[in-house]
Amino acid sequence: MGATAPWPARKGSFRDLRDRPAVCGRQGPGLRGRVSGRLHLRGQADAVHPPRRVRGLRRLRAGVPGRGDLLRGRHAPDLVGLLPRQRRVLQRPRLPGRRGEDGRHRQGRPDDRRPAPAGLSVPLHGRALPDFPWDSLAPAKTRAAAHPGGIVDLSVGTPVDPTPAVAQEALREAANAPGYPQTVGTLALREAVVAWFARRRGVPDLGVDGVLPTLGSKEMVALLPALLGLGEGDVVVHPRAAYPTYDVGARLAGATPVPVGEDPTTWPERTRLVWLNSPGNPDGHVLGVDQLAAVVAWARERGAVVASDECYAELPWRAPWTEEGVPSLLDPRVTGGDHAGLLALYSLSKQSNLAGYRAAFVAGDPALVGPLTEVRKHAGMIVPFPVQAAMTAVLADDAHVAAQRERYRARREVLLGAVEAAGLALDPATAAGLYLWVRAAGRDDVGSWELVDALAHRGILVAPGSFYGPHGEGYVRVALTATDERVAAAADRLGGGGRLF
Q: Where, if anywhere, are coiled coils annotated (predicted)?
C-alpha cells in the first residue's frame, strides 16, 4: 500500500499493522514483510480480501514461506496484531461446495467451468467442440473398399506424389541439428519467404520482421483467435462453405464463429477477426483485388484483423488467374502499401508435397507477427531446423511447383469429364485449388450423403459438402490427390457406370 492511500490510518487498520509484530515470522518493509509473499494480492494482506479468495489461497499446497500454516487452514504461530474479525477469516475452515438453486456453486467456479474427469469431453470456455467429421465417413469407406477394384480415396487432400529432391537433399544436409532451432526462423528462411512473395505473389514490400514459420498452416488457423486474445463476445467470421478449423479455432478461444457471404457490409459489427480463404477449400472460389480491398477497408474501419489462408494459390485453373496469378491479401493493390492488421498464411504441403514436414508460414503486419512469435517462444512451438532448411530450398525452386501443378491439371481434366458423364455438375465459380466441388446436375433434392453413398457403391470415397457447413449441403468435394492410376480407375467407374441419379 502506498503512502498516498486515500483513507486515513486508524487504530486497527492494516496501515496500523505495519508497526506491529510480524505474522508468519517474516520481516521486511510494509505489509509484504508481515505475511507470506504467496498471501498477497495486489500488495495487500489476505484478510482485506473476500473470504472466498482467502479460502482459495488455503487450497495451495504446503512449501510456501511461513510454513503454509494459513494456507492449510491451521493457526499460525503468532496472530498478534490481527483484529478479531480478520483472525476469524484466516482461521475459518474450508467449507464444502454448496449448490444454489441456479446450479452454480456458491464457492468456486460454475459447474460448466469445473474440470471434468479424465477421459470425458471437456467443453472449452463453455463451448463443446464438434465431433471430428472424418470419423463419420467410416461406413462409406468400408463400402467403397468392398469394390472389386479396390477403393479410390478422393476424400482427403493428402499429397501422394514424391517430395521433391531439392527438399530431401536440404533435409539431409541439415540433419545434424543437435541444438534448439529458433522460433522466429532462420534469417535464410525468412529472406526466402520475402523473395517468394515478391516473385510469385506480387508482394514487393514484405520485410523479414513480418515472417514467422509455423508447424503447418492448420495450427495457426486453430490457434490464431486465442493468440490474438479473442474471447467471449468477439465474433470471428469465415466463408459460408469453409474448412472446419476456422469454426473450431473461434470456439477454442471462446469467441463466436459466424459463416458469412462475400459482401462485408452484411457482416456483424462486433467482428474482431476475418478469415478469408482464396482459393477456397472446398469450393475453389477466388477473391479478386477489388473484393480483397473492400474487406480490408471494412475491417480497418472496425479495428478487426484480416487473416487470409492462401495455401492453394499456386493452383489456378481458369483465366484470369492462370495469367495474372491469384492475388494475395498482402498485394499493394489491396493494402495500399500498408500491411497493418493483415496476415497471410501459406503452406508448402500442396505445392511441394511437404505435408509430412509440417511446413508453413504466416506473413504480414510486424505488429502482429512479433507478439505471435513471443507467445510461440513460450509455448515451444518451433519448426525443426532441418524442416526450415527444406522450406528455404523449395521456396527458391519454382520448377518442382510447375511440375506438380501440371500433374494436378492432368488429373483434374480426367475427372472433370468423368463426373459430368455420371450426372454431376461442377460449381461454375470453381477456378482454382485442389478439389472439384460438384453436385447432382439439375437436382436440388439430392443431399451430400446421398452422393457420398452413391459414389461409395462405385468404390469412390469423397467428402460430403455438409462437412464444410450448411451452405455445402448438396455438394461433395472430390480431391485431386490420388495417383494417376487411381484417378484413371475412378474415371472409368464414373464414366462407364451411367448417371448416378
A: none
The number of beta carbons lying within 10 Å of the beta carbon of residue 290 is 11
Same fold, 133-161+400-496 and 165-396: no
- Domain chopping of the chain, boundaries: 133-161+400-496, 165-396
How does pLDDT run across 368-391, given as a tens digit for each residue?
999 999 999 999 999 999 999 999
Distances (CA, A) of 50 to 53, 86, 90, 128, 241: 5, 11, 11, 32, 49
Angstrom distances, CA of residue 350 to CA of 49, 394, 459: 57, 12, 25
- The Cα 58–Cα 56 span in angstroms is 5
In sequence order, which ranges of 314-421 are alpha helices (DSSP H)? 321-324, 332-335, 349-352, 366-379, 385-395, 399-421
Per residue in 254-277, pLDDT (tens digit) is 999 999 999 999 999 999 999 999
* Core vs surface per residue 104-122: b (16+ CB within 10 A) or e: eeeeeeeeeeeeeeeeeee
> Which residues does 260 contact at the CB level (< 8 Å), separation at least 6?
237, 238, 239, 240, 266, 267
- 165-396: CATH topology: Aspartate Aminotransferase; domain 2 (3.40.640)
Phi, psi angles (nearest 5°) of residue 440: -65, 125
Instruction: Report CA 337 to chain centroid distance, whole Å.
Output: 27
CATH homologous superfamily for the domain 133-161+400-496: Aspartate Aminotransferase, domain 1 (3.90.1150.10)
Q: How many CA atoms lie within 13 A of 2 on its CB side?
A: 4
C-alpha of 362 from chain center: 12
pLDDT tens for each residue of 192-243: 999 999 999 999 999 999 999 999 999 999 999 999 999 999 999 999 999 9
The contacts of residue 56 (CB under 8 Å, 6+ apart) are none
Grid cell locating 230: 479473442
